[in-house]
Amino acid sequence: MSTTSELYAVADFCLIPIGTGTSSVAEEIAECQRVLEKSGLKYKLHGYGTNLEGPWSQVSQTIHDCHAAVHAKGAARIATDIRIGTRIDRPDILPGEGNDHKVQRVQEILAKDKA
Amino acid sequence: MSTTSELYAVADFCLIPIGTGTSSVAEEIAECQRVLEKSGLKYKLHGYGTNLEGPWSQVSQTIHDCHAAVHAKGAARIATDIRIGTRIDRPDILPGEGNDHKVQRVQEILAKDKA
Amino acid sequence: MSTTSELYAVADFCLIPIGTGTSSVAEEIAECQRVLEKSGLKYKLHGYGTNLEGPWSQVSQTIHDCHAAVHAKGAARIATDIRIGTRIDRPDILPGEGNDHKVQRVQEILAKDKA
Amino acid sequence: MSTTSELYAVADFCLIPIGTGTSSVAEEIAECQRVLEKSGLKYKLHGYGTNLEGPWSQVSQTIHDCHAAVHAKGAARIATDIRIGTRIDRPDILPGEGNDHKVQRVQEILAKDKA
């Protein structure tokens, strides 16, 4: 496989500003949501991070731009945890449907428990 | 602070079975949801993990029990990524509301952008 | 498998104090190393976290105690990323040798490249 | 801050192949080390991941290429956990010294305990 053929990435990230002097991180996470909105990528905020997916380099660039935006708001240092997955066996999963597809599959299995 | 006083943990985890011979992980994640349901803790599945919160030792024990249940289903090896947070400045945030509170705060800030 | 039979955990964690007003985290990480030293568990600091292994509940309790100690030093909020793995297929790997064993296996494979 | 000015990233990643039919991951991690060696970036394997640092896009591209290489070896699906940090307050930390600098700072503090 050539490394020039870009993989599609289904991801999730949790960004933490360091040294801001306040224990609240909501302003910084809101700023990330603005960057995500502009990115054109599919994303969804949850209680401990944000689901995000798209071509690998766009996912990476968008998280980079979140760092840049949060630095611009005053955070001297930032630490982010990213979970990122790729697969080559399911070309049938449509772009933008990676994370939703996973939730749906689990819910289908659990629905049978109740049936 | 005494280390015997247990901290309340707001967490998120993503469990991955290894060596199962299939690229699908939905059955294993569904099994974890069953363990979570029995735990009595508040939890919520999303596209790349599950939000979970409660007293630190119960959160930890519940994730342990997910490992045990997924091993029992045949996975020889499991790797999990856990994000876990504690804070001592907001005793007003009610148990079970930690992750929801974070999402709500960000949404309040973003709502002002549109106002 | 009974969930009362405790799993052995091979782990790694990265703790981040929030709202300390300084972008340095070295004092807090040093405090964690002191907690780890007292824990009796095998651990090893690296550039972006600390390897740690032992019975699951002891690993969890030790990371909890790192949070408690860092809160005691003044951090109002802490976020930690934990990678934790269990396996039931290699009872021959000795306690305390889980992380070292993984590095060794990779180095053995790479050594053959040069041979 | 312009998002076109690229941030320097100090990172760590742990890659897990899924559905390979074996609980061993050493061959895949060895393959990643070969990719890292070719990348020209500074990296260091530890028990639960690999430290890596460089310009953000190169760090990201290198982890992408690890995925591509592990897919090429037969893994249908891969999940990776990345810890990635940036800071704008320490331009004096030399490229390639980010992770080592962190360990050194902690060791200096602990050395005073013994003094």
Can you offer a commentary on this structure?
- Chains A, B, C, D: Pfam families: Thiamine_BP (PF01910).
- Chains A, B, C, D: This is Thiamine-binding protein domain-containing protein.
- Chains A, B, C, D: InterPro entries: MTH1187/YkoF-like (IPR029756), Thiamine_BP (IPR002767), UPF0045_domain (IPR051614).
- The structure is a homotetramer of 115-residue chains.
- With 115 residues, chain A is of the alpha+beta class.
- In chain A, 42% of the residues lie in helices and 30% in strands.
- The model of chain A has no long low-confidence stretch (mean pLDDT 94).
- Chains in contact: A-B, A-C, A-D, B-C, B-D, C-D.
- Chains A and B meet through strand 1, helix 1, strand 2, strand 4 and helix 3 of A and strand 1, helix 1, strand 2, strand 4 and helix 3 of B.
The amount of helix of chain A comes to 40-55%
Strand composition percent of chain A = 25-35%
CATH topology of chain A: Alpha-Beta Plaits
Q: What do the pLDDT scores of chain A average to?
A: 94
Number of helices of chain A: 3
Broad CATH class of chain A: Alpha Beta
Domain tally of chain A: 1
**Strands side by side in the biggest sheet of chain A:** 2-3-1-4
Q: What is the number of beta strands of chain A? A: 4
CATH architecture of chain A: 2-Layer Sandwich
Distance between the termini of chain A: 44 Å
Which structural class matches the secondary elements of chain A? alpha+beta
Could you give the order of the helices and strands of chain A? EHEEHEH
Q: Most extensive chain contact?
A: A-B, 37 and 37 residues
The outline of chain A comes out as globular
- Low-confidence spans of chain A: none
What is the CA-atom radius of gyration of chain A, in angstroms?
16 Å
- Assembly state of the chains shown: homotetramer
User: Tell me about the biggest sheet of chain A?
Assistant: 4 strands, antiparallel
